[in-house]
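Lab notebook, bench 4. Continuing the backlog of folding jobs that were queued last week. Each job is logged with the same field layout so the records can be merged later without manual cleanup. Today's entry covers Ribosomal protein uS12 methylthiotransferase RimO, a 463-residue chain. Filled in by technician R.K.

JOB TYPE: sequence-to-structure
TARGET: Ribosomal protein uS12 methylthiotransferase RimO
LENGTH: 463
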Amino acid sequence: MSPNPPNLRPDLAQPRIKPEQRGDQPVIGMVSLGCPKALVDSERILTRLRAEGYGISPDYTGADAVIVNTCGFLDSAKAESLDAIGEALRENGRVIVTGCLGAEEDYITGAHPSVLAVTGPHQYEQVLDAVHQAVPPKPNPFVDLLPETGVKLTPRHYSYLKISEGCNHKCKFCIIPDMRGKLASRPGHAVLREATALVENGVRELLVISQDTSAYGLDRKYDVNSWNDVELRSHIVDLSRELGKLGAWIRLHYVYPYPHVRELIPLMADPDNGLLPYLDIPFQHAHPDTLKRMARPAAGTKTLDEITAWRTICPDITIRSTFIVGYPGETEEEFQTLLDWLQEAQLDRVGCFQYENVEGARANDLPDHVPEEVMQDRWERFMQTAQAISVDKLTAKVGTQQEVIVDDIDEDGIATCRTKADAPEIDGCLFIDENTESLSVGDIVTVEVDEAGDYDLWGRLIR
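JOB STATUS: finished
OUTPUT FIELD FOLLOWS
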């Protein structure tokens, strides 16, 4: 798959505020690793710091201290986080660590004992306290003006919208609940207030994220709040309906296939609602025995029947998912069931990972771990199957007209865009290579698709 340009990658993003600082202004740098949920945390931290009078530096050398927001989901991510902390220490020397890996303070300080402080995920106040201690603030109310949207690490035309923290599931390969706690949903009116402000300030696409988006509001017992004289449950269906009225694209990520998800599909089929016909569902596997060993919440769900029902209601729906191959105990028969399921499901966008032990995960203790060479072989076979499906899906779009959002225009005038079927960074792109002089980043335009690749499309501008 052709990746989005590096300047659009969340883990390489830089703060989108003016770099100029006044002479005596304390300056903080930020390195943000991991998933979009961590990116939202970084934005909140920087927004609070900017409001207190701190400057934000895009590099190490201009900062009085550096915050490293870490990822700790996989052992490889932990190693990357430790490397980032080490680099920040070498380049700057004054480092505050936060994020998921921050839940393992001894692990961090054992490798880097000179860090100034370590805080866990979404511990905003503790991060601010650590910054205040390391670099006291010097606010000036006459010059420290904060943009209404806060500090953004994503391009101005799209933004992640976090609706909850934590997760109630106990999947054996995952340690997210240990790091981020149980499900804690934001009030619906607070989410809509933030979303409204983002759209009013130019955001054209909102990417709704949480660890379990379809469980939103369960911890609040779906309490009712008032929003614009509308009685609003803290429920993903009510929230999606209201978000879809804001005039922006609304894209749902990390949705478990609970029965009430079917209530979302008519909203996606409604041309007057901004909820995109797009579901990002982490199926992870298809064989019931594998799902049982994973302790997946959807192990008993007839997912193929649900997919058929969704497509009956909304034929244009895009379904993306991620899968794990080589999970402990996975037999060839179980893997073949996954391939057969994938062929029948005909998912539009698919990612696949080889199983990896994660320190603290219960899956580590399962018997019959799959040899690396077998995992590699299964991954290659899985991706060949997924690629063939992708080619057929995209080829069928040649000759159709698609609405796209413009993410980037390079110096040669080639526009990198995304259709409604493509989330930033994780899905494909649509490229326009001529007559792009009138386009600007963030525009939503119509193109006719004239060429398809394995994962990407090319088209010509219609309007």
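OBSERVATION: Residues 1-20, 141-147 have pLDDT under 50 and may be disordered.
SIGNED: R.K.
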